[in-house]
Amino acid sequence: MADQENAVRVTRLAKRRAAETMVQHLQQPNKKRVVLNEIQDLSNVGINQIEDKVFVSEPLRPKCKQIIKRKVKSSDDPQMCSAYVSDIYDYLHQIEIEKKRRPLPDYLEKVQKDVSANMRGVLVDWLVEVTDEYKLLSDTLYLTVSYIDRFLSVNVIPRQKLQLLGVSSMLIAAKYEEISPPDVGEFCYITDNTYSKKEMVKMEAEVLKCLNFEMGNPTIKTFLGQFTKIAQEDYKKNNLQLEFLGYYLAELSLLDYNCVKFLPSLVAAAVIFLSRFTLQPKSHPWSLALQCCSGYRLGDLKECVLIIHDLQLSRRGSTLTAVRDKYKLHKVSFRVCLIIVQMCFNIVFSFGNTGFILQRYKTMTTWPFMLGNWTRTSFLAIFVFG
């Protein structure tokens, strides 16, 4: 028992040291950003631009609803009831595209003066560690990041308050999602008492006011659960590797500011595409059932898939290791999955397999685009001929 208590103390001390390091990183002097235009009314900044920079799926047609109804297997999940799954998705999609629930796709450039994409990534990476430390639900993490992005879209804050915003947002999300959420004192402790309880409660109130107390929001995980069920259609029983890989890639997407512009449903669809392609490179990763369920065609996923793929191969966010470390130790089955991931990409992304991919998909509907990166030739061929 004493050994367990000592282990907990050591772990929490490590987290506090990590928090201290993060504060020092955020407070390092940096070049001032050039502000092109002063912002007059933050509450209305860029609201009319949101729909131009995010992708909106098409309404499900009656035929698609019938396809989904046939494909959805029996499940104890009330959100996957075959008779209502399409209606549930339509409702969630209508909520996610509401302007009041969407962050600005370029708030760091238009609103913030002292916060960069790298700082945001460091913050989210640290929050992943906090989530793991307190055994919080992943739903709490997704909501936390959503609150942070929405708050930063309408409020200018200095970098010294960024960590305070992060833990205050997690405090709200934990109260919303968890049965026994950590109290304010524990969140102060995890920041090495950088902020007082009074400061945290004050920031909590500001975030709630910004959210207009509308804390419920469809997240990437909300849609990922639905799409995963549809994606299991090719398996006689549930494929845990597909499920684990999907959750892994989805959490990686939280680290990258470039994913903010995408709707949660589109990120979830891109994650499913990439997971299926990784585990079954010889099969087409985007089925008719997935297209009907999500409302996204293959071409809609291109940009998001390439960003998440870069995260998967550590071309982006290579210094942000919390998610990778978390899933390395998660379960033996997932560690095996990670080995398969690397093997698949070593094969599929080799230049010599281009002809095979082209031949396999040459009979499908053409969707042409050019990208001058020969290392991705095989992968992009799916988009070209998908």
TrEMBL record:
Pfam families assigned to the protein according to its UniProt record, in alphabetical order: Cyclin_C, Cyclin_N
| Keyword annotations | Cell cycle, Cell division, Cyclin, Membrane, Transmembrane, Transmembrane helix
Q: Where are the transmembrane segments?
A: 332-352, 364-385
Q: Which GO terms describe its biological process?
A: cell division
Q: Does the keyword Membrane apply?
A: yes
Q: Where is the Cyclin-like domain?
A: 125-209, 222-310
* InterPro entries the record matches: Cyclin, Cyclin-like_dom, Cyclin-like_sf, Cyclin_C-dom, Cyclin_N, Cyclins_cyclin-box
- Please list the residue ranges annotated as the Cyclin C-terminal domain: 218-338
Q: Which family does it belong to?
A: Belongs to the cyclin family. Cyclin AB subfamily.
Q: What is this protein called?
A: Uncharacterized protein
Name the species this protein comes from.
Answer: Solanum bulbocastanum (Wild potato)
